[in-house]
Amino acid sequence: MTILVTGGAGFIGANFIHDWLADSNERIVNLDKLTYAGNLQSLASVAEDSRYRFVKGDIGDRALATRIFAEEKPRAVINFAAESHVDRSIHGPGEFVQTNVVGTFSLLEAARGYWLELPEAERSAFRFLHVSTDEVYGSLAAADPAFTETKAFEPNSPYSASKAASDHFVRAWHHTFGLPVLTTNCSNNYGPYQFPEKLIPLMIHNAVTGKPLPIYGDGKNVRDWLYVRDHCAAIRAVLAKGVVGETYNVGGKNEMTNLEVVHAICAILDELKPASHGYSQLITYVKDRPGHDRRYAIDPAKIERDIDWRPAETFASGIRKTVEWYLANEDWVCGVTSGEYSRWLDKNYKERVSA
Ligand code: NAD
Ligand code: DAU
Q1: What is the pLDDT of residue 339?
Q2: Which residue segments constitute the domains of the chain, with CATH numbers given?
Q3: Rounded to whole angstroms, how far apart are CA atoms 9 and 33?
Q4: Which end of the chain is more exposed for a tag (fewer CB within 10 A), N or C?
Q5: Which residue lies with its CA nearest to atom 10 of ligand 1?
């Protein structure tokens, strides 16, 4: 049997592929466009594994996706491929609409064409699992209850609007065409192989290179942080046990302000890589992100009850593993922090004069 993942050269997809191959003998095919966020270095150790195949390409290339379905006959698709960074969606929303909305639509159509031709038993066993985000639900005030699966969508950024649109297309392909879909809406992930434009790897990288740690606004925005391998385990569990047409919220019950997260990183670095200054002295307040969502929080009651999934890592254990991984993998970090990365830093941070 075979599964097809898209976006497997990105942060979560690469972790998913490693865990999949460690856990199962089932073949895994990875369709990835290799944007700035896609990195085959993250998959170097499995590149020669006979159970793994990489195909460079766009989920929006219907002919290519149709060919892969015909060649590989996957029993499931897991759609990780997306433009995923909120700040980039503010600087250039077009790519987000193209990949997250049009690309997902195109992949749904290729999957539907393949699925319709399957023999009955395989048709009912087929799954299209769409990996989405808690950001589709919008922003919470401090006293609001956490997001449940029935919370209305209120996306606020170009990124979350494009993901919300893709979730709606996935839902509609089930309700109208009967495609057996599943959707997961997860909170903020952290862990190995995350591109250092996102909060946690950016702060680790800046700290060890002695650069300022840029905190947007007052640093009191709240996110619910989940270790990436717990998210991957949740996706495997939903693929195995999820009810077709349902959505599942995935979260760590671990709400923290950005300042708390950055102080936690600094404390671990103070211990593992002591510097003459304390790392938290590098914290610098900068201009806020436009439309910055104040708080996200996930109510994971449904996935706990129906799928029996719970995270294995606490934030304390997961963040320590993460800092240790970045300290031990300087080559990987060097490989992604040249070229395009420095142009991005200029674009995003130069104009953010210290607040
Ligand atoms: P990422 O940006 O690290 O990786 C995205 C991957 O998709 C890259 O390998 C990129 O090359 C590939 N890609 C982009 N456009 C493509 C296209 N048109 N065709 C094929 N491949 C393409 O993202 P991530 O953080 O690994 O997120 C993966 C998925 O999980 C996304 O759908 C994201 O919305 C969702 N998600 C992320 C988080 C998080 O905290 N990172 C949380 C919840 C949900
Ligand atoms: O909630 C799930 C989402 O989490 C995913 O869907 C997205 O793909 C993922 O990128 C992430 O979105 P965020 O916008 O929450 O992540 P980011 O790491 O960009 O920012 C986390 C918080 O840290 C946010 O409140 C903004 C703040 N921040 C971020 C950066 C990059 C800073 O204060 N300074 C920074 O330099």
Answers
A1: 82
A2: 2-194+227-253+291-313 (3.40.50.720)
A3: 9
A4: N
A5: 38
